[in-house]
Amino acid sequence: MMMTGNCGSKEATRKITAGKVTDCRLEHNKFYVAFERGQARMESFGEGILRITLAPGEIPDSESLAVVAEPDDRLALSDEQDLVTISNGALAIQLRADQPGLSVSSRCSGTLLELEQAFCRIGKTLSVSARIGESMMFFGLGEKTGFLDRRGRRYIMWNTDDPLHTPDKDPLYKSIPFLIFFDGERAYGLFLDSIARSEFDLGYEDRERLSVTVNDSCLDLYLIDGPSIAEVVMRYTRLTGRMEMPPIWSLGFQQCRFSYYPQERVLELAESFRARQIPCDVIYLDIDYMDGYRIFTWDASRFPEPKGMIARLEEQGFRVVTIVDPAIRKDSDYSVYLEGTREGHFCKFPTGEVYHGEVWPGTAAFPDFSREKTRKWWGFKHTVLFDAGVSGIWNDMNEPSDFKPGTPDRTLATVPNDLMMDFDGKPQPFSKCHNAYGILMCRATHEGFRALKPGERPFILTRSAYAGIQRYAAVWTGDNYSWWEHLAASIPMHLNIGLSGIPFVGGDVGGFQSNSSPELYARWVQLGAFTPFFRAHSDRGTRDHEPWSFGPEVESIARRAIQLRYALLPYLYSEFRRACETGLPVMRPLILDFQDDRNVYGINDQFMFGKDILVAPVVRPGDRKRLVYLPHGGWYDFHTKERLEGGTYIIADAPLDRISVYVREGAIIPMARSAESTRFMDFSTLWFELYAGPEGSFDLYEDDGLTQDYRDGAFNLRRLTQQSPSPRSFRFRLENLATGYGGGLKKAYAAVYGLDEDLPSEGCVYENRAWHFELDGSDAEIRIG
Ligand code: MIG
Q1: 43 with 75: CB under 8 angstroms?
Q2: Residue 271 bears catalytic tag
Q3: What lines the ligand 1 site, CB under 6 Å?
Q4: Using one digit for the tens of pLDDT, what is the confidence trace for 427-459?
Q5: Which pTM was predicted?
């Protein structure tokens, strides 16, 4: 499928432009524009968001899978001479009667996009195109290879199961058609709401032009105002939704392999974690737990007693997550297939014939998750797993992947384009809705969780995704290799996924394909401990990839990294709460927090873990020092507590046994004592690390970690603030803002770094290069100096 979307390119001979504006009107909060060869509809979606839908013909009324916000009534029209301006306050679109094109501007940022033509049509595609300034950078677009700034490449949105992620490989498993523009001063966003194939050319054909092309009969765009990158992401996630609080165990360390079986091996694995005192919360069962890869079955010889096994694991503080693929084996002995056929749950051709592809189970049919009835049916099928005690569901192969086409072009390794999804009576061929399959499957799984385990927080992990996936699932980045290159590449990939509204992201720690070296594993587990989703995984046929598989030195390095992750859980959990409330990522590029510091623009190998911790992993073999850029402001070395001045590069010691971590001055980092599982952690006793700085605050969030009760107010929110204008004066306050949860902090030991030793104080002592005081969780004020 060729797509040359560039309106400006000369060779696009069959190009049909929208032409001049012939008419426009504001009606029921919608603004309609007629062009010579097409039309546009504009709506306001809350402060700072405008929707523009463009089509050569009728504008279809389809339901969005991504957008959860509602249109509002802010649109106001002004008509001066022949210049028409439609605005929702923050953003405005201007057009001129009898002229082609339109321009979008922002009250705070000026002109954002200037379209010489509202759109153009080339064959079966529609595109918009605009000039881009020399300084423009691009972020977002979800899971793509390459570096943080996406300029200069062309990206396809077409969910693809491609296990070889070489540097320019595209597309991969997920389609998040959300783009952030940033020119060094102002940021703004563009979201293309389309589940069809689309393409973003960010200065590839022509360095100075951007084009967005969709293989569909309408272009549904949302313009999102800044001026900061953070504001763009917050607005985008107000539009497409935010994640729910995850169960706390899903923030622990998780161990996977293709596949752990039989049952004795799983129990043995659990024993090893406990015997070696390496924290771990989750064990994954990959496809071999099933009977002949039949979804919703157990292999009775490998797992004769799943319920007993899971109960035994639970005592040791483990949860079990099972893989669930979409394709259902064609088999006259298999009730799921028979039911699915009888009840019409599988995707069909327009002729009514069910399609059968070839996937792990052999010949298999694909459930049509666009049907409400099918989602319900699918959801309830999880009873087989939930009854055995399974806690979470891992959705794989949901691009959907299909081996049947058997071509080397992985973008074709999927179901046929003329196969249909029904969308409850508004059928669409896969050529128009391919990218929706994964999110619809997750939605079915999510609905199943809510129905079958109503009090619990769902945990779903998915490989394929579309915009808005954060409402249903965590994502992992598929089949990487045990390559240093993939360790390094995972950082910008995760960061851009985070900027695309998906905070809960991680990659296979240690690398999935091929064999890790001890050093690579050590560096990967250290980095993994600072990624939102922290799971080690390995392909079948690879050598052992457990934390102890690389010898005693690496085992103790891994233990320490994982223990640090657990110790930081009070901080991390609160940061997840912030992600739920703001849509901002947990693992974030420096540019998000330090947009005005030009030195951070090109940094692909450092990131923020939450708002106060800067992580600088080693991503090459042999390196025992590394260059670290500390943005403007004061910093502390997390390991040595040494105070450092930012706005400069430092050469950091990076011995194999630790990862370089820095904390912003003013930060308050709540920590707990690590245990073998979150289940055994004591969150009533905490350690607060205070890094003295002019000012700083942290909202400590606490709830039961498992249920939905927090939605009804069963949570605590404690605002911790500190002020230290100089090393000779320090003020601290704890304020209880919400106290709906009976558990949580009862005792906290606080240590303050960066103050002088010889200060007067009451109830505080100086010891081991820090001031110390204690708290009991009630409102408090502390003064030193
Ligand atoms: O065709 O279930 O990305 O994590 O272990 C491979 C087996 C199927 C791909 C997933 C990988 C998983 C594997 N799956």
Answers
A1: yes
A2: no
A3: 258, 286-287, 323, 396-397, 463, 478-479, 512, 537
A4: 999 999 999 999 999 999 999 999 999 999 999
A5: 0.97
